[in-house]
Amino acid sequence: xxxxxxxxxxxxxxxxLARQRxxxxxxxxxxxxxxxxxxxxxxxxRTIFFSFTDAHLGALEAYRFVxxxxxxxxxxxxxxxQAVWNTVIFAAVSVSLEMVLGVAVALVLNAHMxxxxxxxxxxxxxWAIPTVVSAKMWGWMYxxxxxxxxxxxxxxxxxxxxxxxxxxxxxxLGAVIAVDVWKTTPFVALLALxxxxxxxxxxxxxxxxxxxxxAKVFFRVTLPLISPALVVAAVFRLLDALRVFDLIYVLxxxxxxxxxxxxxxxxxxxxxxDVGYGSAAATLVFAVVAVTTVVFITLSxxxxxx
Amino acid sequence: MGYLRSAVCSVVCLAGTLSxxxxxxxxxxxxxxxxxxxxxxCKSGARAWARKTGNTVRVVSTPxxxxxxxxxxxxxxxxxxxxxxxxxxxxxxxxxxxxDFIDLKPYVTQSRLDAQFSELVKNDTxxxxxxxxxxxxxxxxxxxxxxxxxxxxxxxxxxxxALTETARDxxxxxxxxxxRNMWGYVWQGRAYEGLTxxxxxxxxxxxxxxxxxxxxxxxxxxxxxxxxLKRAAGWVGTITPTGVLNYAEEQSRGVFQSGHAVFMRNWxxxxxxxxxxxxxxxxxxxxxxxxRGGAHGKHVATLGGWQLAVSKxxxxxxxxxDLVRYLTSEREQKRRALKGGYNPTYRALYQDPDLLKAxxxxxxxxxxxxxxxxxxxxxxxxxxxxxxxxxWNAVHxxxxxxxxxxxxxxxxxxxxxxxxxxxxxx
Lengths: 306, 426
Known about the structure:
- The structure holds 2 protein chains of 2 kinds.
- Chain A contains 13 helices and no strands.
- Chain A is mainly alpha-helical.
- Chain A has one domain (2-13, 79-305): MetI-like (MetI-like fold), CATH 1.10.3720.
- Helices cover 46% and strands 14% of the residues of chain B.
- Chain B is globular.
- Chain B starts with a helix and ends in a 6-residue tail after the last helix.
- Chain A binds chain B through residues 56-60, 143-146, 162-164, 166-169, 252-257, 267, 270-274, and chain B through 67, 71, 74, 77-78, 96-97, 99, 181, 189-192, 241-247, 251, 254-255, 260, 382, 385-386, 389, 393, 396-397, 400, 402.
């Protein structure tokens, strides 16, 4: 990131060649910008627009402006705050675990050993399975009466009686987080592995010659060098985790003990057909995700530049 | 031949006025459910009508999940689309979709309506308009293991208290005999519409009302409802696996059909399945009304079922109405009952010798259908889904041990009160 860039040249009048290149660049980017505006910008603006109305799914065109009433009702709804809280816990715990496990897996995969190629392919499998399929699969594995997880844990003597993983409100969020960690650790591992393979070998040889402890090498050399890649991975994961929908909806439906912000917004929009209120919730989801991303990137940039 | 006719018709339609089209043979589109044999039955029925009248019918299959189906319907109807003329709708939708369907009252005789279950006809009449005609009926039933009740010399329970004791007794004895996974009673406890159906049965059977009464007043915060929910919460973890809090119909059938439960609450659809050729409990199952809430309680089942309605935007309303009349007729409903086990909405058919011969269970079903109560979808109008969701959440919390029945119902009443303050938008 920032420190990899060449030093900024002193400001000078751009040459005609430079101006030409900038124009060409805009020309190449233009189709992309138009496409983004059409498929991302327009729906987003329309959602924000609807959040100030009382539009109803049965009659979308017959709406009145209600100002901030939807947002006022939203912040007074304890169910919304529970959804926010669930999402924050989900995002914080799952992303932290994925970062730690992802780096650990990447370190293992980076070691020179037999069958490394096979292992790398195998690790990617959870990431390759569509979320709905893996959620259904885990739903069966978590089943309280037939599920393999209860079977194994009971056989190992770890639990006395079968647990209702997705039904018990004390366990459900943990169960959802576990599936997410299982599914997306490979993604983090992949990015970390790519960064590890870019590292110059000379530093490690120097460290070995100086007889420095491997743990110290990891924390003082490896981690700082791969941290730009890890920040990218964390931002991606955080964005994904804050708007999580499919995994939670398939595993535990509209249950309030695991409901995320997106599940809440969908329920208002589709089940209750309240487009105005649901759009307000969706707009807040967007705002939360946007603000978190900006804050996270800014913080990590400051730290990296230090 | 049929295609030719409809092609000619389209040409006439394009060239001339609308009336010249509706006068001749036309093409009518109908949306049918596609669960199991449903689509096949719908097609054969519609085809028979087409042969009789010389029109053609296009059968459109729709998503299995009723939530998705409603979303699709709303998309089509809010766009004023005429691509579907006849809609198959769930029992809780007439008030949600009332403005998109025509009034069928002028097209059917009063005696025809009187011959059907009154709760259904009442349910399909919104603001004085008959927006749909009943096609088949559903209601919650109690399935029980005949063999186990006989083995332990227990009668079929008549009250929830008796059910609780019997279930506990048989479950414990079966477990002691080595059947470690045996449970007493399975039902639908997931946080979804199905839980509203189950919980409404508990509450109403204790005389605790139907959440919102016919006048639109919120009645759920009462001691009888509290008593009913307390009883149900006591089942979880004792005679019912805790996992029931995430069970829908099929999960509970899974437990019951594989022989791991003494009792099950489910819809009639499960009857042919638990008696199917490969079912482990085939021939060992009985079915009866759901228990009463106590000595003063009554047998209650939540009303379900599907109706046929004619779109306001249809260009062939006359023929569409005729198709609906044909498909919902007593004769066609009897055919569907014999072929696919879909329960007729005409009371007299439950004494029909052919039907009783094919499935003696119809005599038992009758009592559940007569005692069926509707969810408060008519009075709460388009707010119904919100009311139902708040209700099932309050129940789900109580079942999961988060808060007492009394507190949860009190806060539910508060929520519903705020919701209804501007008046139910019907």
